[in-house]
């Protein structure tokens, strides 16, 4: 079984973060000012008026929830 090294895993995390940032910034900021791209998925995101914000805002909301749960668990274990 092939296990990727930590360096390759780090590159994968950075590349996926950059890709999410590019697609999210296109969906939220640039799609209103640019014409249709011809790529079906990007055009669907550009014409959507509600759910394109959901996936972008899901990341900080999930991060807050995880951190708040971890802090609460630490308070519970160390009290």
Tell me what you see in this structure:
The protein is built from 3 helices and no strands. About 75% of the residues lie in helices and about 0% in strands. The longest helix has 26 residues, at about 50-75. It has helices at about 5-30, 40-45, 50-75. It has one domain.
From the alpha carbons, calculate the radius of gyration and give it in angstroms: 18 Å
The count of helical stretches stands at 3
What's the main sheet like?
none
Strand content: under 5%
SS content category: mainly alpha
The overall average pLDDT, rounded, is: 83
| Oligomeric nature of the chains | single chain
Integer tally of domains: 1
Shape descriptor: flat
Q: Low-confidence stretches at least 5 residues in length (pLDDT < 50)?
A: none
The string of secondary-structure elements, in order, is HHH
N-to-C terminal Cα separation, in Å?
Answer: 43 Å
Number-wise, the strands total 0
The residue fraction in helices comes out at over 70%
Pfam family, one: PIG-Y
Transmembrane segments: 12-33, 53-73
Keywords: Membrane, Transmembrane, Transmembrane helix
Key phrases:
75% helix; 79 residues; mainly alpha; single chain; flat
List the helices and strands and how they pair.
Layout: H1 6-30, H2 40-47, H3 52-77
Gist of the model:
Helix content is 75%, strand content 0%.
């Amino acid at each position: 079984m092939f296990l990727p090294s930590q360096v390759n895993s780090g590159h994968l995390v950075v590349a996926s973060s950059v890709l999410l940032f590019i697609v999210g910034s296109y969906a939220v900021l640039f799609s209103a000012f640019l014409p249709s791209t011809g790529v079906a998925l990007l055009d669907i995101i550009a014409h959507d008026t509600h759910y394109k914000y959901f996936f972008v805002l899901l990341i900080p909301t999930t991060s807050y929830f995880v951190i708040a749960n971890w802090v609460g668990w630490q308070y519970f274990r160390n009290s």
